[in-house]
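Open question from group meeting: does this chain pack into something compact, or does most of it stay loose? Before anyone orders reagents, we agreed to write out a predicted structure and look at it together. Recording both the input and the output here so the notebook holds the full record.
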Amino acid sequence: MNVCLADLHVHTALSPCADDAMTPPVIVGAALTEGLGMIAVCDHNSARNVAAVQEVAGDHLVVLAGMEITTVEECHVVGLFPDAAAAEAAGAEVGATLDTTDDGYETFFGEQRLLDAAGLETGRETRALATATALDVNAAVALVHRHGGLAVAAHIDRGSFGVIGQLGFFPAEAGFDAVELSRHVPAGAEHEAEYAVYGLPVLRSSDAHFVRDVGAARTTVVCERPGFDELALAVRGLDGRRIGDA
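Structure tokens returned:
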């Protein structure tokens, strides 16, 4: 087995709250500089920039296809998918529940930039990605699973947009595969153990919206090689694969 350092929650400039500098080449360069072997691109309510980041990464870095879904309760659910096609199909379902942007949307929330592998803008997303979908937590998790993905309760340590902060409890019945701690809970923190009581593996991810944050939190994945299938085995603790802390 090998050890892979992974940051499984990184935004591109498609997310309206992310910096315009979060382009595919910049993200890949930052991940490699940080010594990461695997990242996941998880824009808000869309996966339309994933393929461009994967193209840049080539064989140098494994880029998983992801998405951060905002539920009707304002909870964030990260979906990690087997490939870009699965993520984009899930994203089409999510996007169908969103309104289109209006004239004042970008001024208030920010631009939603579709990018190619060179980092050049190819268009703007017209769905209002900054808003909540019509999916509740259970439906969001079910959607991720229906497309073959892993469902992660995003940054559950946060008071806003984490499932515990929004709901007041952890929804065990939703069927999450893992929980995620943000970069604001360092490994070894006194209150770290309280998030490991749900019987689920704990991932550590940066939720990077700015280049400086890529790799600011990372998860150790013990596996044969970086990739979705190996991550899925590690999350489930099967065949010698496991999730640890970096």
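Observations to bring back to the group:
The chain has one domain: 2-245.
The radius of gyration is 16 Å.
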